Structure formats: structure tokens, C-alpha cells
Amino acid sequence: MTAGGDPSPPPAAPLNLPRAILALLVCQLAGETIVLVARSVYPAIAFPGPVVGMALMFVLLVWRKGPDDGLDAASGAILRNLSLLFVPAAVGIVQYGPVLRDFGLTLAVALIASTVLTLLVTVGVFLLVARLQGKDAE
Q1: Which residues contact 107 (CB under 8 A, 6 or more apart)?
Q2: What does the alpha-carbon distance between residue 47 and residue 79 come to, in Å, rounded to a whole number?
Q3: What does the alpha-carbon distance between residue 98 and residue 88 come to, in Å, rounded to a whole number?
Q4: 70-90 tens-digit pLDDT
């Protein structure tokens, strides 16, 4: 370092990928555990554990004010290789080919109808909230 000060930036902290992947897996496991315990009390619950884990990760990220470099790198690597995660789904399609052949049209109609219904309900809720906020502003 010179007497006048070195303008070079400080060295970057090493990425902690194992810790980031562990955080992702712990949130996934916590979500699965919460759903498993909830299903033992209320068997009718049909909520996927990974969604609960994702909500836990969201709360963690809000609490920590965003991801650190390791979590950002780990999630980026997962997203870049996301197509590998579709292999089990493709295997399932091949495995349940006869079921899809027999009920594929029914499933397609149900998917399209539920999507349209979801969009209509979303628009209705948006308009209702906008109307309520407009009344509050006056």
C-alpha cells in the first residue's frame, strides 16, 4: 500500500456455497416436516412441503434483507440447470402415459377451466381491493 492510499478494492469474501445449499435444504426439510406434522393432525391438508419451505426461505430472506453472495450463487446455479429438475416429471409422464391417454382431455379441460377461473377471481379481488382503497382515500 502506498502512503497516499491504494484505490484497489478490498478482496472479495469467499463464497460459502455449502452453507447456502444447506440453508436451501434446511428450509425444504422444515417445510416437509411442518406439512407432515400438520397432516397428522388434519389429514385433509393437501399442501406441498416445498411450498412451505419456499415460504420459510422468503421469510428468512426478508429477515436478512436479501440473499448473501453464497446463496445468490447457489440459487443461480440451480436456476441455470433447472432443466435437469424436469427429468423426474418427464419420467412421470412416460410412466403414466396410459392414464394421460385415457384422461388427458379431461385433465386439459380441468387445467384450462381452473386457470381461467383463477384469472377471473384474481381480477375480481384486484377490482375489489382497488375499490376499497379508493373509498379509503376519499
Answers
A1: 100
A2: 23
A3: 17
A4: 888 888 888 888 888 778 777
- SS3 percent helix, strand, coil of the chain, rounded to 5, is 80, 0, 20
pTM for the predicted model, two decimal places: 0.48
Distance of CA 134 to the CA centre of its chain: 32
Question: Cβ atoms within 10 A of the Cβ of 71, count?
Answer: 22
Identity at 12, one-letter amino acid code: A
Tracing cell 412441503 back to the chain, one arrives at: 49
Closest CA to 70 of 31, 27, 22: 22
The 3-state secondary structure of 3-49, one letter per residue: CCCCCCCCCCCCCCHHHHHHHHHHHHHHHHHHHHHHHHHCCCCCCCH
> Ranked by mean pLDDT, which of 55-59, 77-81, 113-117 comes out on top?
113-117
Task: Compute CA 74 distance to the chain's CA centroid, rounded to the nearest angstrom.
Answer: 15
Distance, CA of 134 to CA of 123 (rounded, Å): 16
